[in-house]
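Review box. Two proteins, two foldings.
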Amino acid sequence: MKKKIIVTGGTGYIGSHTAVELLQEGFEVILIDNLYNSEAVVAERIGEITGIVPKLEVFDLCDKEKLDKFFKKNKDITAMIHFAAYKAVGESVNKPLEYYRNNLVSLMNLLDAMKKFSIGSFVFSSSCTVYGQPEKLPVTEDAPVQPAISPYGNTKQIGEEIIRDAAMVNQNIKAISLRYFNPIGAHPSALIGELPRGVPENLVPFITQTAYGLRDELKVFGNDYDTPDGSCIRDYLHVVDLARAHVIAVKRLIENKNRNNYEVFNLGTGIGVSVLEAISSFERVSGVKLKYKITGRRGGDIEKIWADPSLANRELGWKTESSLDEAMKTAWEWEKYIRMKKLT
C-alpha cells in the first residue's frame, strides 16, 4: 500500500516540483492549496509529467474547521510537507500582519492536526532568511539565528521555534526544517515552474519576463554592497534539486533514521552568485541581452549569503546536481512555454 503524503501549497512553485518527485518515488500525494498564488491546472500538469494526477483539495489552512474536516475524510496519512505560506521578502515589509497571520496560524493548525489525527512526520519549508546577515560565510546550521530583517524571515524563525517546541512536548512528532537558499529554474519538461501573479518579487522570473518583453527593464537593487561587483550575492539552486531533498527528508523520518525529533538542514549549492553574475548566466544560455538598470537598495535585502551544505550532503546523502546555467535554461524554457500557451 502506498504511503500517503500531504503537500500543502502543492500547486505552488516548490510544492508542485516536490509532488512530481514524490509521485515518481511511489508515494500517494494529496495537494492542499488555497490557490492564492497558483492555479488548479498545475495538478493536471503534474499528471502529464508523472502519469498520475494528484488529488487537489482547495481551502485555506487558516480555516481550522475545514482542515479538521479534511483530515477526518482522509485517513492513514504518513507525513506532511508544509510549503503553504506567503513568501515575498519585499511584500512582507509592506504587509507584515498578513504575513504573520497567514504563515503562523496555518502552521499551528497543522501541528494541532498532527497531534489530533496521529500524523508523525513533518517537513517544513524554511529559509536561509533565518540567518539574517551571517557574520561568517559560508553559513552552517550552527550559525546564530540573527534578528530577522523582514517579517517574512521572522515568520520562518518563529515557525521553526514553534515546530521545535511542539516536537519537544509531543515525542510522537518528528520534524525536519529545510532551510532553502534561492530556488530557481523549472522542471525540464517545461510543464511546471515559477509563475508569480502580478509583478515578480524574485529575481529570475523578473529576468525571464524582461527577456520575453513583458517588463520594460530589470531593476538591480544596489551596486554599492561590499561584494566583488557591488550587487547582492545569493546561493541559487535548481528547484528540482531542492524538491529531491524533500523526498529524502520524508523518507528519513518515515524510516526513523532521524537523529533527533527535530532537525535542521541547509539546502544550497555552497556557491555565492551575485545578481550581475546571474544576469550574465541568463544572457549566456538564452542568447538574449537583458535591459536592466541599477537602482537604490531594497528594504529587507541582505548583502550576501551562501550555504555550507555539508551537513545535508553527509546526513541526507543529498547534493545539488544542476549548474546555474542549467537552472537558467529551464527557467527560460518555462517562460517561453507559458507565453506560448497563454497561461497568464
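Next protein.
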Amino acid sequence: MKNDPIWEQLIIEAEHTASEEPALAQLLHACLIDRAGLEEALSFRLARKLGHHAVPQQYLQEIFLEVFGSQDLIGCQVREDLLAVRTRDPATEDYLTPFIYYKGFQALSSYRFAHYLWSRNRKQIARYLQSIISEIFQVDIHPAARIGCGILIDHATSVVIGETAIVEDNVSLLHEVTLGGTGKELGDRHPKIRSGVLIGAGAKILGNVEIGECAKIGAGSVVLEDVPPHTTVAGVPAVIVGASQDASPALGMDHKLC
C-alpha cells in the first residue's frame, strides 16, 4: 500500500525499540523491520502465534498473504483497528505495542482471515482458526460473525462473539464481554451492535437484540432487550439509567454511568 503512514510509523518505532532493547532486536526484525509491508508483517506475526503441529506456521502465513492479496478491505480494517487501539487506550503510546503484544488486536485480525475463508465456503479451515485463536488468545469469535472496522477489544480475555452477531464500525468493548444467544434457538440469534457503542467489562448481551448507535452498556450488565440509541443501561437485568453524554461513547471510553 502506497502512502502508508501507520506502516511507516511502525517501522520507526520498531527500529528505535530494537536499538534501545537489543534483546528484542531479533523479534522486531523478524516481525517488522525485515518485512515489505504491514500485510506481510502481520501475516508472519499471526502465523507465528497460531502455527501448530496440525497446520504449520508456513502454511498459515501463505493463507494469510493470499487473503491479503485478494482483499484490500482487510488491510484497511486492520489499520483502522490499530488506530483505534492507539487513540482510545490510555495505556498505549504507539502502534508497535498492540501490533506485537496485544491479544485483542491480534485475535481480531486473525478473525478477519477466518471470516474471509468462511465467506468463501472454506468452513473447516475457518473453524480450525477459530479454535486455535480461542486457545492462544482466549477470544472466541465465530468466523461467520460480521465485524466492522475501528474496533477496540481492550484486554480481550474471555470475549465471546456468536455466529450471527453484527458489530458495526467504531465499537469498543472490554474483557469478558459476551455477545451470545439465549439457548438452543436456531437462525438469527445474536446481538446487533451499532456504531459508536461502548460495552463495559463483563457485560453479557444475549439474544437477537439491537444495541442502538452510541449506546453505553455498564460493566457487568446482562442485556436481554433492545437498547435505544444514545442511552446508558446497567444492571442485571439491564435497565436504562440515563442518556449517554458522549457523542460517541466508544471513542470517549468513559465508563461512568451518568
